[in-house]
Amino acid sequence: MTAYSPERRTALILTGTGAHGAYHAGVLRALQEAGVKIDILAGHGVGAGGAALAALDGSARLWDASGIWRSKAAAGLYGWRWPIRAAAAIGIVLLAILLTPLAVLLAGLLVYLVGFVLEMLQIQAGAAIVSWYSAWLQSAFAGPNLPTTVPRAATIALLVMLAVLAIGGWLAGRAAGNRRARGGWWWRVFGAPLAAEPAREWFATAIWDLIRGAAPLARPSVAILGRRYSEVLTENLGQPGFRELVLVATDLDARRDIVAALLSESHRREFLAPRVGRDRRSEVLDLAGVGRDHAIDVVLAGLTPLRVCEPYPIVFAPDSYWRGETHRACDRPGAIHRLLEEVAAAGARQAIVVSAAAPVDAPHQLRAPRLDVRGRFGESEGVAEAVALRDGLEAMSMHFDALYVIQPGHNPIGPYDVDGAYDEASDRRQNLSELVERAYEDAYRQFIEPVVGASGEQLARARAPIHRGEINHR
To answer: Where are the domains of the chain?
Structure first.
């Protein structure tokens, strides 16, 4: 590895899932303020969304006060799908209905106890209270009252729950396109319990707002939005703030990665050239050419985590390699190796990899394991990312003159902890705004000051001060 040089073609690679996009936001803010030269933005997972915005000079929409990772609405990302939430609420009502007779009897114990105490105190009201409750209890359990009302209400609640789940499964099937699926309709709901739609909607809207500017235009279809995005980026490549782009998602049906790239003409031809043992037409989308309609498709697929969310359907054109097929696409936690390979093929000689997965390289750093479903899935994805990052850096180091990594030494926030997480080390709860600020500090401490500063590169702007009111703890 040689020293950092701003003269080399440099790639910034964003890797991670869900809430870890907040870490990307802080690093992007620091690199922009320091004036670090970036030629290629690359990403997978939530990094695909961050890279797509940053390539259009829109990374501020990630860290602004009203941006994606500062907004309180971020707590609604990657939550339980609405049929599951609705069924859970109806289930609580059903449980309350079934427990009503028992609650009435338990209330009777309290009434008899109060009556007994009042009689011990020679207060006449005690006997009257017990007598009134006894009469009411007999009427409540007589005839068409509780013995009839409770079963009817419970049956209605159960039927409503089943109807909600059935409607949710039907709507999920329609959203998946015209692909036939094997298995019961209930697997449409419970097979992928988390919702990626809010994250996809949020990033697509942010990209459209960036493109349309102040024009009061409604957001077009995904294909038209992808075409507009590719056209704007192609027309402005070389302008300040606009960078080349490489995105990676995974095609579940083709069992291979999808690589979407928009590169300058001097590197585009070599990038698209055939490779030994690999048909580039089946996996590469040239966003400056015929693949431009799928630019946003790949971003939205990257925002769809594997296993826990319903895959995103990409409908290929009839004249494309896949002849009009609809393929299911999503993110793959181990895609960092492929990103490094592709940015090297795009001519990058040095790369900066950003990951929110904290390494564990010493004993006595164990934490209590997560028992909740989202926490367990988040732990498994965090482990997959950390292992893939280490292996990818070791395998691809010979293809670069220099490789740099920006990652936290400690991060209690998992991929699905969008509303924050409790940190055992500091015995308090941390939120996404703190993760943004921690990333900002890490970028300066791990890369800008020791690497860029040591190279003699003059920083474009002075480091912006951080207001203490923005975070709870440094």
So the answer is: 10-81+195-470, 83-190
